[in-house]
Amino acid sequence: MSSTDQSIRLAPATADDVGLILWFIKQLAAYEKAPEQVTATEDLLRQTLFGPRPYAEVILAYASDGAAEKPAGFALFFHNYSTWVGRPGLYLEDLFVCPEFRGRGVGKRLLVQLAQIARERQCGRMEWVVLDWNEPSIQFYLSLGAQQMKEWIIHRVSGRALESLSQL
Q1: Which of 25, 42, 77, 158 has the fewest CB atoms lying closer than 10 Å?
Q2: Is 91 a catalytic residue?
Q3: Is the pLDDT of residue 4 over 50?
Q4: What is the pTM of this model?
């Protein structure tokens, strides 16, 4: 899955990358104005991403900035399933590109790589969500052919609500 193009290199993350993955998660949370909501730790990431049952995968992007290669972005994804299509889907949980590398094709390269993985794994679709105020990202996704699914509303149960629901 490694690839190189105009000073951008993509590589699948390994257990040795959990510190970098957590750093990207915290950068994304700060960008989304919710840094206090990150409770992930390196140990949790190591267990859930690289343990006996990995729940998600990560692609890291590196860009050359002069002579040195620097971490530029990441994509964390996992599979869901569409009963209507009868196939797995690829769900992009997080996509983040460091501000200094935006506009250099890093985000596009990550999404193209994910689309290639989705096709290789015979996924029926690729989905993700974006915050409604994140207009630059919305326009970027639309430019790549993404369709907004405005008729769908996300529901979430977490924390105490999850615990309560599990005990009904």
Answers
A1: 158
A2: no
A3: no
A4: 0.93
